[in-house]
Amino acid sequence: LMKSDSSLLQFLNDMEAFGLTVVEGAPIAGTEGLRAVTDLCNRVAFPMETNYGTTFTVKSKLNPSNLAYTPARLGLHVDLPFYKDPPGIQLLHCLAQSNNITGGENFFSDGFHAANLLKVANSDAYKMLTTRLVDFYDYELITWLTSTCSADSGLTSDGEYEMICYNNQVRDTYLNMPADQVQLFYDALKAFDTLLHGEQCSVSTKLKEGDIVTFDNRRVLHGRNSYTVHGTAERHLEGAYLRWDEVYSRIRRLEESVRSRQP
Length: 263
Known about the structure:
Layout: H1 5-18, E1 20-23, H2 30-44, E2 56-58, E3 74-77, E4 89-97, E5 101-103, E6 106-110, H3 111-121, H4 123-131, E7 134-139, E8 144-149, E9 152-155, E10 161-164, H5 179-197, E11 202-205, E12 212-216, E13 220-224, E14 227-229, E15 235-242, H6 244-260
Antiparallel strand pairs: 1-12, 2-15, 3-13, 4-12, 4-15, 5-14, 6-11, 6-13, 7-8, 9-10
Helix pairs in contact: 1-6, 3-4, 3-5, 4-5
Keywords: Carnitine biosynthesis, Dioxygenase, Iron, Metal-binding, Oxidoreductase
GO molecular function, one term: gamma-butyrobetaine dioxygenase activity
Organism: Macrostomum lignano
């Protein structure tokens, strides 16, 4: 993957088509391990810098500012919905997850497929989630970011989705809508959430050390079961983001490169 253009092209095409891939066997030791997710980003284009930095570390820690930095369960969500232009792709590299950790399975769900199912099964709920605006926020030590979007956000002129905007962990507690619409909104959100967790949309896996799971942050929602650490074991993931614009550019150049070498 790091040396073969054809392998990289296949990886990126799979990402575009399926929204979820897992790279196995990445380095986990020392500086090479810590840099592996950045190196993969640089092999494609370059990582997207956010208020969390160029990369971010997912570990349990004291006085956490985010639910991800605890052993608690993380519900299905997309990252950074409080950005006007959220990251297109997320990468999570598993550096440490020993057999002395109970739980911690990652789960993923195809939000576009769930939205299509909702549209057929419950058109009123679908209309509610595609027309009502919801506020999201992130309050860090030095930043306070806010944004507003609908749960199924950005329908294009041909009815395709541009992104799913759903993250209850950072959804504002205040709903800017008439009081008689609030219960209907929560009912619609429950219907969507049920589909997201259903077998037709979701998969679950426990990452192994050296795995880099890569997924479309505008389509595929991700979450994590709670976990318990026994003894001195540690769960450690390093994350990064890519923009789809740079990825599409890389795909076009790789297609040119691969074609030029064909007989």
